[in-house]
Fold this sequence. Notes:
The complex is a heterodimer.
Chain A: H1 2-21, H2 25-45, H3 49-74, H4 78-87, H5 90-112, E1 118-119, H6 126-133, H7 138-174
Helix pairs in contact in A: 1-2, 2-3
Chain B: E1 5-6, H1 7-27, H2 31-55, H3 60-90
Helix pairs in contact in B: 1-2, 2-3
Amino acid sequence: xxxxxxxxxxxxxxxxxxxxxxxxxxxxxxxxxxxxxxxxxxxxxxxxxxxxxxxxxxxxxxxxxxxxxxxxxxxxxxxxxxxxxxxxxxxxxxxxxxxxxxxxxxxxxxxxxxxxxxxxxxxxxxxxxxxxxxxxxxxxxxxxxxxxxxxxxxxxxxxxxxxxxxxxxxxxxxx
Amino acid sequence: xxxxxxxxxxxxxxxxxxxxxxxxxxxxxxxxxxxxxxxxxxxxxxxxxxxxxxxxxxxxxxxxxxxxxxxxxxxxxxxxxxxxxxxxxxxxxxxxxxxxxxx
Lengths: 175, 103
């Protein structure tokens, strides 16, 4: 289990690094799916079965499909890859990279003061999660449902205006 | 130690993923890549919750992971709708073109 954890962690970090440096959006999405699957394996190893299933179904399934649809609609071609290459100059990325590396170094330094706590994988069953979700965290569930409703209304509003703008454009073209 | 992982290593893993996402947000100019990097950061935060939950063998970490998942779903649907809107206006997805609130 220990070896599998470090292996999956290395795969996830490498795939995420590839995802943020690709020029082609579809390649980046595929690398991110690999990273999500590795993260799901880590959750499974730590005994969080339900979270692992959600990671695969919702993140690697639903959210990534949404991204793929949008990239297909935007029809990025070789021209876009060329543009990305121009944007990804050394002078552009070196500053943010150094700043984030410093922050990461600080995090590692803080974490190096190890308390010696070990994670022993104990299964937390979906039944326990469900009981906790509808018990002490009921208010949070209501808040998330309201947030999702707001997201739905907002997305509908944007799509409605987008469609109406196109329709009026076409009508103007005909005239 | 044969079947255990130090708690700090799990947190360092989540932290490295989070900082990769942060670097992605700062470096890229394509709006789709920025949203993808935001997803990386949210995913790393959720992972940190679950790892901390596994440390105490408590279900709370997974509950928080579900909340993060809900936030990510709402954020990505609105964000991608805004990216389509930006593309409709500007014919590209460079966020440097979206400097003013009204096109």
